[in-house]
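Retro notes
What went well: the complex prediction finally ran end to end.
Inputs used:
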Amino acid sequence: MAAVQDGQHNLEVEKDIKTEITNDGSGNINANSSSPGSTSSGGKSKSPAGSGEDQQTLLAVLQFLKRNKLTESVDILRREAGLSADADDSPVSESAGAGSGGVPNVGADGGDANSLLSRVSIATPVAPPATAPPKVVAASGGEDQPDVNVVLSAYSQQGDPVMYPLYYNGLKKFIESVLDCHRAELSQVFYPLFVHMYLELVYNNHENEAKQFFEKFSGDQECYYEEDLRILSSMSKKEHMKGNETMLDFRTSKFVLRISRDSYQLLKRHLQERQNNQIWNIIQEHLYIDIFDGMPRSKSQIDAMSGSLAGEGKRDANKAKVFYGLLKEPEIEVPLDDEDEEAENEEGKPKKKKPKKDSMGSKSKKQDPNAPQQARIPLPELKDSDKLDKIMNMKEATKKIRLGPDNLPSICFYSFLNAYQGLTAVDFTDDSSLIAGGFADSTVRVWSVTPKKLRRVKSAADLSNIDKESDDVLERIMDEKTASESKILYGHSGPVYGISFSPDRNYLLSSSEDGTVRLWSLQTFTCLVGYKGHNYPVWDTQFSPYGYYFISGGHDRVARLWATDHYQPLRMFAGHLADITCTRFHPNANYVATGSADRTIRLWDVLTGNCVRILTGHKGPIHSLAFSPNGKFMASGATDSRVLLWDVGHGLMVGELKGHTDTIYALKFSRDGEILASGSMDNTVKLWDTLKAFDDVELDDFTAATGHIHLPENSQELLLGTYMTKSTPVIHLHFTRRNLLLAAGAYNP
Amino acid sequence: MASPKTVPKDAQVMIQILKDMGITEYEPRVINQMLEFTYRYVTTIIEDAKIYATHAKKNNVDADDIRLAIQSRMDQSFTSPPPRDFLLEVARQKNQTPLPLIKPYTGPRLPPDRYCLTAPNYRLKSIQKKMSSSAGRITVPRLSVGAVSSRSSTPTFGTPSVQSVTTKVGTPMSLSGQRFTVQIPSSQTAASKSSTPSTPTVQNVLINPSLIGSKNILITTNMVSQNLASESLKRKHEDDDYDAL
């Protein structure tokens, strides 16, 4: 059929060739140019029959060509189709007009022309809708959600519903018959194709056919898509689709597949030879095929990277430069002291993979090429108290124990008793002197870990009575009478899911299901501010390593960057397809990592708000993230019980740690990054050797370009120790400044 | 606990739903919660649909009414987060503004007071000066908390934290942080249960005995308050009010 068409229409051939060339570029153009190509060829082949539908199709194509000023092709088409010059005006003009912007749903039967145009226009980049939907054709009826219908109208009838299983089966047989090396790659197509075909059947109200289709082929899909398939099976009517945001997002964002050029050619040739273009249409519209030149990937490689809701990340999504180095520590005047001087020398050094305690001779003043500029984002200047803190920090750092495979840290576990499954969030201060717990009864409790009790500042009445000139005025302002081991903070109206201390120990943040993030003062133990912005549960929040900024992420799929003195967020990071479950700052405070229920991790640039990395590979919602202290690597844990290690600079997966048997809720690197501790719902804490894991990474040009790494199966060697708790899931880990590991969880008999 | 044989049919439906959605472990109360939710949701929808039907002057509730009822409830109770393209657009606009510079040396960095929760959330009320209707009453000049005059003569006062004063007819105010002794002249009602003799140097405060009945309050003040004409006393003495700071 392709050959016949090419004979008739020069333009078709041209377009096809263009498609080939632009394949490596944006797939959107791919879809854009070839879909009218293929559909018009479909229409053309039937035009002698002259049915009304085909006429409409033809007219729609004509309109499209006119709009894109392809006048020559317009003439050719008109001549060939035998259309008169004026036949193509009014009946289609309205629908064409409607189709250019958002197309409200005209119903499944009416307006293949509309649907064609809507498909074409939707294929243009998903960037914000440029114009409001233009005036709607009166026949469209009162649809109050043009966005949803724009999205869903792409599903309007494309083929006979009964034939769908046959199409799918045909493709299945084809893929089973190809060479082994291509089969793994082409099998990637099954899942998105299955979902889109099913959704099309549902959208067009073919409930029975949809159910049969589902039953027949859902068992063939990969096991890690099981959760999604279950949700899909619960949607059997069009109305169900409208309510499910995740499915809508799945539809609008193209599912990304990475296929080698050879495999892709095979697939394309096969599909274009067949009589029906159904599957090809779907692939064109809903899939983004990222083609690379090189060896096809093996099944294990593919499995490692796939699993997210929208396929894998595009290669060019991970190409932006990320400044992963650390910011230079400011100079602090310290009293002349051998210890301190040595510690100070460490500050000016460029980034190093294994920071050494014994400093190299000279302080390097050069800017680390991988570190962001000091003033890239405004950071609060250091107050005197901060400088004192830093000096304390350095002094303690000198007493840090060097950890390694032969020198494992001691672990001190803090069990929350009588929490009755109500403990939802825990945090330690950096100097490990305070613990805060967020509970399902909407309280936040702060405990003092050291013998020093918690004191609040005296009230205004008492403060006026104290002697302000005395030396120990800072002690006198504290109220001794209400000193206690723990303080309870009331204020939230829903379970508290995220909690974070500020680095200067003055503030505590808590985020809750009521949609607010609250800032509490640890001097007065009262609530200072409630930041309202998310209208849905906020699952996680964290202060930046320098204080002043904090991030929050929640059910509304957006992460926000706030500053404590602005009541509105400064940045909004939108792009995830499902809830954001975990938010972490990079140690240099210039980047934010968010893990989400759509099984991807995205890295955002604080300065511009752009997403600079999309990391896929987890097969379940991500619940914990940790950056290594040198900023180069990141670890992530999810409900699929795996810990994945990532190289932030290249955006590649560099390791996979298998061993846990349940969701991993806590991840922490030791102070020098030599050991990674992971805590999970299976009541264990496991320690992993990160030096070895990151040493093994080899990066040649090919892997850097395509991102395909052979992950060695060395989880067993990297595992340094497993420590069981007494039926206490571990939900937080913290390394003290001396590399003692603290862990926290609620005893759950 | 009902044995499996006698579990009601609706509960069995719920169990089946959980099984179909792949949920294998759940507390037994989940079934009850699901049943309650279903019942409440369905009755709400049907009631709404009935209202729509009667509004349209129809005798029977039909599918359109139900559809309308569901739609309105969806927008009200079961909202979903905004669609992705909207979020992308808003984010794009928000991210265009550069990050604001940080002013140095500003103490605690908090939003303007309007957006904080640091303001006091209470105000102290004053006792209003009122013309008495009966001869035996003693009228009282307005009691203003924190007024200099009151403070100077009662060194036992702590510093009240609020300066503003509202008047309310006949009601003695709540004076947090102040201690008062009240002496109720015996010519007043018999209901008074506590009459503590006051020190001779302190003038008396007349408090509605019904108020005092519940608590034993020690009040010393310059002012005298009258109220007996009252109106039920809205204010509640809590002992906390009088705690020392």
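What we learned: The longest helix of chain B spans residues 29-55.
What to try next: split runs per interface for comparison.
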